[in-house]
Design a protein that fits this description.
It is a single chain. This protein is an alpha/beta fold. Helix 2 packs parallel to helix 3 and helix 3 packs parallel to helix 4.
Length: about 200
């Protein structure tokens, strides 16, 4: 049975490297893959997945309104598809995550998604929320905070290295630091307000 996989991590953990290695493994065995990347992420050029260690491969782009089930089913008419791989999967819409489940369940093609769970305020991305709810396999790609603890959060910084506490959820770029939750200071970053009570 084809499964939906969600490989998640904090920023700069090697998600794109892992995706490109998986795609290479399929191709090496004579199997066809479809790679997708969001149109809004054009750091390495439109329709290209690149890793910080220099690996790169062309990919199909998707917008939030695109029907991924239809796109994959159409491509499958031209050639067999053995695996679908999605970079920056946090930018999927909820409907697109549903479409990915149907690629697995109706077309019998495994789907591997790679992304982060939360934004710079600790708020979940819509795509990640539904991947966490619906994927059969959840795999954490681990990385380390400057404190030496496991990093699970993504702090945004400005061009001077100062922490950014407010702004739009989506801001594409490399200006993020992976942090442990304690170093991230979730109580300050989160839009959920809570004041610690005074304890005797």
């Amino acid at each position: 049975m084809a499964k939906l996989y969600f490989y998640y991590s904090a920023m700069n953990a090697g998600k794109s490297t892992t995706l490109l290695q998986s795609a290479h493994n399929y191709r090496e065995r004579g199997m066809n893959t479809l790679l997708f990347t969001p149109a809004l992420d054009h750091r390495s050029g439109v329709g290209r997945i690149s890793s910080r260690i220099g690996l790169s491969h062309p990919a199909m782009i998707f917008q939030s309104e695109d029907d991924l089930f239809l796109m994959v089913a159409t491509k499958r008419r031209e050639t067999p598809i053995h695996c679908v791989l999605i970079d920056e999967a946090q930018f999927l819409s909820p409907k697109q995550v549903l479409q990915l489940t149907l690629i697995c369940d109706r077309l019998g093609i495994p789907v591997l998604c790679y992304g982060i769970r939360t934004d710079f305020r600790g708020e979940p991305f819509e795509g990640s929320k539904y991947l966490l709810a619906w994927a059969e396999e959840l795999i954490e790609i681990k990385t380390i905070c400057h404190s030496g603890k496991k990093a699970t959060m993504n702090a945004r910084i400005d061009q001077h290295g100062n922490r950014v506490w407010a702004g739009e959820q989506i801001d594409i770029g490399h200006h993020y630091l992976a942090m442990s939750r304690k170093e991230f200071d979730l109580q300050k970053a989160s839009p959920i307000r809570y004041e610690l009570p005074e304890l005797e």
